Amino acid sequence: MAISLSLTVNGKPVTAEVEPHTLLVQFLREQLRLTGTHVGCDTAQCGACTVHLNGRAIKSCNQLAVQCEGMDVTTIEGLAAASGNNSANNSGNGTLHPMQAAFRECHGLQCGFCTPGMVMSAIALATEKPGLTEADVRAGLDGNLCRCTGYHNIVKAVLEGAEGMRAGAAAPATSAASAT
């Protein structure tokens, strides 16, 4: 028995039919083809499936899709538009979110499997706690596992990304028309 589901995903309204037992991660990957959200453990232990639900980081492998009725979901694919780093029309010009850029610049990834979940968790952490310290980052990412790195560059990336987020929030907004 399929259930009708309406929610917003990466700023766009979505309506779909889902089975009652469909997990949010399955819905995102299999029905919406947003494969940046990874399935690592299916037990909410690794954090590879982390997305934002109404602005809060959650592990989508233990959230039923139907529980998200009317809510706003942001995946790794929706970060640039959500961050305001795109052009005025949010057309997706390829600009990375400051946290994504920091992970790239600080070499905060190796194989990349955990990276989307790490980035989503890091953004939520930086938003909740603007004056992050290294200890805050290490404690805040406790639920996200990386099997490749020693976390040193991930922590460095989160701190740099948080600084970039603060700098971006402090910068005055400019429209495409005023930039010409």
UniProtKB/TrEMBL annotation:
The keyword Nucleus does not apply. It comes from the Bacteria. Pfam families: Fer2, Fer2_2. InterPro entries: 2Fe-2S-bd (IPR002888), 2Fe-2S-bd_dom_sf (IPR036884), 2Fe-2S_ferredoxin-like_sf (IPR036010), 2Fe-2S_ferredoxin-type (IPR001041), 2Fe2S_fd_BS (IPR006058), Beta-grasp_dom_sf (IPR012675), Diverse_Oxidoreductases (IPR051452). SUPFAM superfamilies: 2Fe-2S ferredoxin-like, CO dehydrogenase ISP C-domain like. Keywords: 2Fe-2S, Iron, Iron-sulfur, Metal-binding, Oxidoreductase. Its cofactor is [2Fe-2S] cluster. Residues 3-79 form the 2Fe-2S ferredoxin-type domain. GO terms for molecular function: 2 iron, 2 sulfur cluster binding; metal ion binding; oxidoreductase activity. PANTHER family: OXIDOREDUCTASE WITH IRON-SULFUR SUBUNIT (PTHR44379). This is (2Fe-2S)-binding protein. It comes from Paraburkholderia tagetis.
